């Protein structure tokens, strides 16, 4: 995997706790289109609405550390989001040099390698070449905001351990588990297992800070096991917040 692919994939692995789709999008349509239809929210548990927030515009700046046992790298991600429609990311390497720019909408991923001036647009489903799942724009935005992921409509089994409430959604192939601190209404851990492929993704949410009326996790860690492949990503967010409007410059 080339360096620019590793940077983009590591970012997506960091962001995506993914929707497991039974029908994948066709790779024939390479065009990018932004759909503005309202997202239909269906919560499998009534308390999840209290754990979720959907600001019109949101920005994040974070240090990202990636390690897959063969390659270790650190970079800065400048992330901008428009609700239900766009995620824009600029990856900056040493000395403040922009290396990669990427933009994700509901259908596609645009990638611009600023060092080689190589540009391409691919359907979101093409990321299956590198990822164990097919990501959706909604799941990426939910993860960045610290919302529970609406990747299953199955009513969860609920158990309690002290102040922690554990929501487990289970079917023949997948297990999705949200661990929630119900005293502070914050997501503590998210576990996603693919039983058939023996793949697992474990994400933790720590260092919560209250800003603009809600709690936001400034530290995220993801551990991914996919066969013999293991990846570890850490997100250290040092600037974030809701804004009135954002620009999304690309090429």
Question: Which characteristics define this entry?
Answer:
251 residues; mainly beta; outer membrane lipoprotein receptor (LolB), chain A; 13-stranded antiparallel sheet; 2 helices; globular
What does this structure look like?
This protein is mostly beta strands and 251 residues long. The protein has one domain (3-20, 41-242): Lipoprotein localisation LolA/LolB/LppX (outer membrane lipoprotein receptor (LolB), chain A, Clam), CATH 2.50.20. It has helices at 3-15, 137-145, and strands at 57-67, 72-82, 86-92, 98-104, 108-113, 118-123, 157-161, 164-170, 174-181, 186-194, 199-211, 214-226, 229-242. Strands 6-5-4-3-2-1-13-12-11-10-9-8-7 form a 13-stranded antiparallel beta sheet, with helices on one face. A hairpin with a 2-residue loop joins strand 7 (157-161) and strand 8. The longest helix is centred in the N-terminal third of the chain and has 13 residues, at 3-15. The radius of gyration is 17 Å and the shape is globular. The protein starts with a helix and ends in a 9-residue tail after the last strand. The model is unreliable at 14-34 (pLDDT under 50).
